[in-house]
Amino acid sequence: MEIGGSKESPEKPKKGKSKTPRKPPKDSVLKQKSPAEFFAENKNIAGFDNPGKCLYTTVRELVENSLDSAESISELPVVEITIEEIEKSKFNSMIGLVNRERVDEELYDDYESTKARVKRLAKEAKNQEVQAKNAAHGKKTKEHTPTKVLKGRGETSFYRVTCKDNGRGMPHDDIPNMFGRVLSGTKYGLKQTRGKFGLGAKMALIWSKMSTGLPIEISSSMKGQNYISFCRLDIDIHRNMPHIHLHEKQQNKERWHGAEIQVIIEGNWTTYRSKILHYMRQMAVITPYAQFIFKFISDTSDKNMTIKFARRTDVMPPVPIETKHHPSSVDLLLIKRLRAETSKQNLLQFLQHEFVNIGKSHAERLIGEMGPDFSPKMDVKSLTDQQIVRIHQLFRQAKFDDPSGECLSPAGEYNLRLGIIKELHPELVATHSGSAQVFEGHPFIVEAGVSLGGKDVKLGLNIFRFANRIPLLFEQGADVVTRTAIKRINWSSYKINQSQDKIGIFVSIVSTKIPFKGTGKEYIGDDINEIASAVKSAIQQCCIQLKTKIVKKIQAREQQERKRNLSKYIPNATGAVYDVLKEMAQSHVSKKKRFEGEDAELLSKVSARLITKDTLSEKLAQHVEQVDYEMALEYATQSGVSEEPRENIFIQALEMNHQFMDFTNPIFVFRLIS
């Protein structure tokens, strides 16, 4: 074919490519995602990585919300957490799905071919044959249990998680938004809280909608209310709005107050069982004033369990109070927001009342330093963007007093010690609470405890980490507490064997802003010098206390050993001295003038059997006891260990006339020990 005098041969399509011509790209369409949709697609940010982790995180979030709720009204927390396993057939009936038997077996992931089955049975038979042969020769072998490995999600199942508390409860009209709207909550002030965004319960609802499609159920009642608010709802992911199924008021005959939340999710109890129980145990350590009742219910009776973590004390930490921002910790956006929300009219009042550690005179000096465009009585709402930048620059460069730790609520040495003793039953325990320190304008307090021995404690270092009284179980290796305990503490200098002793290390950090690393918020980095130094100092103070106790135990053990060695020779010494005294008494009968005074009286008592071998043995034992105690007291004095005397010590006055005794004479030996 010729076009315009030129010849063109049609191009043959290349192999492997489509003959259909490509469509021209359309204009890009701008899309917008709701917060709920974002977190549903990136659920790992909130700790919902896999079904097992989702079950663990759901339990954790509900328990921590319950504790915050009870502590906010100074009520001793009582938290009941129940995990009920739901079989697939029961779950299908709950959602109205009819169970269907398999038709094409090869279609399923757990299908086992005939060849694979023969191979597995042959392997099991061979293992049994080896075990029988070893048993015949008296050898012990590890039993091989036939296991069938499933691919994919493995043993994931469905679970009903229920958490009930005796806390504040929730207002009836606020419940839908508190659970059905992401990024809406009451934890956005500058305050020490277990959670920060109020995202946990909402993520459990999002995971429930993604894995089971079932709504969440909430029952709540506040103090003094004669009704219970009941709400069944799920969340509209794309619109970030609650979808309410039922919202009503019910009778509250028992005058109960608190909240009960029930959610059905997909999870994996088998792989995360130890993590959940470990979390509950650590929570009982850091909150000994709370009572936890944990239940696991399954159709298989041998899996059922009920664990009660009893309350040990009724002393609660003070309720943390909301504080104002420190000037060195703010940024431009925060200054603009505070300017828009403040009720103060002029700049002087704004600086005084919206920030901590800025008094009137200090504020006037700051305004004078800002330049001629600023005045104390200027309208704060009229600040331009350039003026706000100037304020921010001055805040970064000026000197301010550090914020106090009055807004923080640490567990306290008393509660930390009680929690450790209650759950671990150690032989020795020491605790220390440091003073408030500052990192980037945020105050923080480090508390630590170190224990030796205990129940269910492994040899070596057992590290327990807490942040704002929340146990941290994952990503331990990179945490500042782990690295400090392993690399920066010389345990041998405190008479502690790092590899052979059972050492428990408990470190709790509380702050208005915990500097977590990573999206999972499971560890605190080792690159913050202020926190690393405070952690090291707190652990060292505990070790110093333990060293004193360990030295006393060593002294007591050495004293017992020394006393045992001395007492071992009492019978021989008693027999030898008594035989000599007896011979001298017999000689005294024939030579009356050789001994006079007390010596003659002593030998007369020996001759009259008023002093016997038993008497001499008793006196020697008393002397050993006295000498041993005096040696121990002298050793303790030289070692710098202060200890109150166990009994009164009377020291005789020095006399001018000194009498020298012949220790080769058995009579003087007897006088010495008597």
Describe what you observe in this structure.
- Residues 14-23 have a biased composition (Basic residues).
- Belongs to the TOP6B family.
- One of its GO terms (biological process) is DNA topological change.
- With 674 residues, this protein is α+β, with helices and mostly antiparallel strands.
- The protein has 4 domains: 35-93 and 153-309, Heat Shock Protein 90, CATH 3.30.565; 327-397, Helicase, Ruva Protein, domain 3; 413-551, Ribosomal Protein S5, domain 2 (2-Layer Sandwich), CATH 3.30.230; 569-673, no CATH class.
- Helices cover 39% and strands 17% of the residues.
- The protein has 18 helices and 18 strands.
- It has helices at 35-41, 51-71, 88-94, 114-136, 175-180, 200-211, 269-286, 332-341, 347-354, 360-370, 385-397, 413-424, 480-488, 529-568, 570-590, 598-607, 613-639, 666-673, and strands at residues 2-3, 6-7, 78-86, 157-164, 216-221, 227-236, 241-251, 258-267, 291-297, 305-309, 428-433, 437-439, 442-452, 460-467, 470-472, 502-511, 516-517, 523-524.
- The strands form 4 sheets. An 8-stranded mixed β-sheet has the order 7-6-5-8-4-3-9-10. Strands 11, 12, 13, 14, 15 and 16 form a 6-stranded mixed β-sheet that branches. A two-stranded antiparallel ribbon has the order 1-2.
- Strand 12 and strand 13 form a beta hairpin.
- Helix 13 (480-488) packs across helix 14 (529-568).
- The longest helix has 40 residues, at 529-568.
- Mean pLDDT is 82; it is low at 1-10, 148-154 and 641-664.
